[in-house]
Structure formats: C-alpha cells, structure tokens
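Proteins fold reproducibly. Next comes an illustrative record:
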Amino acid sequence: LKEIEPHCKGIMAVHSPYTGIIDYGQVTKSFAEEFKERGGCVYTGFEVSKFDLFNSSGLGEYFIGVHSNGKPSIFGRQVITCAGLYSDRISQLSGCSPEPQ
C-alpha cells in the first residue's frame, strides 16, 4: 500500500492500475445533454410509484407508463432509469428481479 500510495493509511487495498476516478455527476450531465440533443427527455426528482404497459393500437405497439404520486405520468416506448441505491425497488416495480444484473 505504501509503495503505491505513500500518504494513504490502511491495512490493505485493491490495486487497480487500469481504472480511474471520474466526476460521475459531470459524466451524467454530459449523457443527459447528448440525449436531449437527440430528442430525448430527462426527468429528475421523479419518484416512481408504478409502471404500466399499454398496447395502444392493438398492432403490437406497446407504450410504458411511468407514474409518480402527485406528478403527471410519463409515457414512452423506452424508459431508462437511474435509481442508484433504489434500483432494486425500481426493478421490482417494473416486474423484474429485485437483484438486477
């Protein structure tokens, strides 16, 4: 530990020479801007309470409804969530395993 990080204190560490520290907030903002430039919408502070699947035309076109208490619902053909520590709950709400991969 002292050979690689002389000012670090600890018992042991994992050496990972091909990884780095990033500003995840900045990376996320960059992804969001590019997504919006391509016509996507980004919603923050939207606590999901329920997902629904709708067959709008009877022709196999499905839409996903994303609902939040006290806010208008969102509908789309695709949904990307970023729930951090709540990802297991969001996975369950969408009908999937509480242990997403």
Q: What stands out?
A: Strands lie at 48-55, 62-68, 71-76. The longest strand covers residues 48-55. The radius of gyration is 20 Å.
